[in-house]
Amino acid sequence: MRFSGKVAIITGGASGIGAATARRLHGEGASVVAFDLDEERGAELVRAAGGERMAFRRVDVADRAQMAEAIQEVARRHGRLDVLFNNAGIGSHSTTVDLPEEDWRRVFAVNVDSVFFGCKAAIPIMTAQGSGAIVNTASISGMAGDFNFDAYNAAKGAVINYTRALGIGLARAGIRVNAVCPGPVDTPIIARVNEMPGLREHWDERVPLGRFAQPEEIAAVVAFLASDDASFMVGAIVPVDGGLTAHTGQPH
Ligand code: NAD
């Protein structure tokens, strides 16, 4: 019950890694508010949790005004904000030459601007209470390049270095900022991978653990980073990837 009496906001909380983290923090005692566009899945999350201490709000994380208003409302209603998990994200499969400018901007709006908007609203609240934990979802795709995921690689790389800058800047205010870098995780975002011939088998072969992660395996690390167990972790970029980034690529 590491989050007993604590209040957490989770963006992209209706599905995949966000929903698994919502369930995990809720299970450890937190009051959770999931922000997402997917109202159906959001309602299902609340229903499955029995309603108590689990709430959903439709928020477009790429909209600064919506994010600011929603975050302030949660803090007002609960009297505090302990955890912000900036997790919502979208993929993008294209080379630079083929990628329309509006798609590049949308990838940055949802994956990067959202983190800025979330932090901009949450930091004054956390600073006033003298404590808080922010966790950002980056990706191993922000640590190295993929073929044909140019915008996604750039956006997740931005999340990583933004996490470092925020982490050092906010440490003495009592706010810890860290990031997780998942490898391949079985969630709807990766359904597209399953449609690409041979790609699923490729990842199963490349990941030293020999499989995709389940969203709960990422949620467990997010819960750790958001908890007081990680009290000396600041600006850390934590791969949760079954050993993928530990491997030089040499065949076995
Ligand atoms: P997912 O598709 O299951 O969840 C993403 C959620 O974000 C969805 O519920 C979606 O509705 C929501 N979302 C998208 N745009 C939004 C917006 N504008 N406003 C509010 N909500 C919005 O996918 P997931 O795998 O759980 O992804 C979560 C995060 O993990 C993303 O940032 C993704 O880039 C990252 N990630 C995923 C993997 C993977 O293999 N699944 C690997 C590395 C990183």
TrEMBL record:
One Pfam family it belongs to: adh_short_C2
Taxonomic superkingdom: Bacteria
Keyword Oxidoreductase recorded: yes
Keywords carried by this UniProt record: Oxidoreductase
Molecular function terms from GO: oxidoreductase activity
CDD domains hit by this protein: SDR_c
Entry-linked InterPro entries: NAD(P)-bd_dom_sf (IPR036291), Sc_DH/Rdtase_CS (IPR020904), SDR_fam (IPR002347)
Oxidoreductase is among the record's keywords: yes
Family as reported in the entry's similarity comment: Belongs to the short-chain dehydrogenases/reductases (SDR) family.
Protein name: 3-oxoacyl-ACP reductase
Phylogenetic classification of the source organism: Bacteria, Pseudomonadati, Pseudomonadota, Alphaproteobacteria, Hyphomicrobiales
